Prior knowledge:
Strand content: 15-25%
Distance between the termini: 36 Å
CATH class of the largest domain: Alpha Beta
Number of helices: 15
Helix content: 40-55%
Shape: globular
CATH topology of the largest domain: Rossmann fold
Amino acid sequence: MSTVMLSLEQETNPWLAAAARFDEAADRLNLDDGMRKVLKSPAREVTVNIPVMLDDGRLEVFTGYRVQHSIARGPGKGGIRYSPDVTLDEIRALASYMTWKCAVVNIPFGGAKGGVVCQPNMMSDGELERITRRYTAEIIEFIGPERDVPAPDVNTNEQVMAWIMDTYSMHVRHTTTAVVTGKPVDLGGSKGRPEATGRGCMLVVLKALKKFGLELATTRVVIQGFGNVGGMAAKLMARMGFKIICIIEYDGAIYNRNGLDIAALAQHRKDTGSIRDFAEGENIDRHEAMFLDCEVLLPAATENVINSGNAERLRCKILCEGANGPTTSVADEILSDKRIFVIPDILANAGGVTVSYFEWVQDRQGFFWNEALVIERLEEIMNASFDSVVAYAEKHGVNNRTAAYMLALDRVAFAIKLRGIYA
Length: 423
């Protein structure tokens, strides 16, 4: 898919990007038309209207979605986001990403995603609880431990998951902890879950350093995003000995060529509400910070930040995609030409869904693991998945993203063929 064929608006459309990557992988696998249609089409799309009584006495109606892309390899799995920017196209694309992500790390889930169109930062806790419970009630027949297992995503958290779990449990008349993951530990959540996505990013970067013979202590890292994923990756990588030279946030970027004190920076943000004006670093332009000379760039914030307009300017050796969809499909071609080693999102940030799988298993067993065991098993899966993707790329002469998609499509298609088509 070339830049000539797409406008920037089309290039950054998540559903078109997902389709472009699907098509390339399917072509290389020589999938027949029938299997392509099955793999590309969401199994179910649910749109609900959610009436909620606001604190001021007004009755408002919100729109919610739940898309189950595939349940061929197991229950649907995917987060629920609250945002005014939620669209059905976005949810479709993210549900498909979850299918491929679960297949890449070879855990027995399919892909799903949900969202509610709202402005959570403008809502009280009571309003958020009411919108969550009513949304859950509207989709309740489509979710469950063996059907579809939601999780936190943008602007949702463990409290929202607790409300969903409680609402579902009240309807089925017994406590069902395995209906969601990302819950508080006291309600059946897993130890190690908050750090899982950031830890997974660190683990695959360590594998990449080993592959290229790079020294950890001299590896300069630029991280975009200082939230759950970027902040946790920064914390864990700094503790491991990486040199984090720049953190980029929505309101600015902070730089220190000798490496930032991440714990002190986190405390500074807690005290001031911003990473800017940190005493042990310098403020730099957040847009230009992406193009610093570094070994590792880790975008862990929003989608489409690397596109046809700026990909040529990247100066990293390794791009580890902590966010979902930070690179457009058109930019993939540019990164390949620049020989940047891309650890694609469906591998790089799969640590979260992997530990969510561990949480689901623990809930269903009623037996919980200590944190050391969670970390050990996460490391096993991330390392094995990295090796599988890189081996697939080398075997088929493709880049890592195409290899990850080919591997995922191959696994899902194989499951569908084994099951057969029910008619």
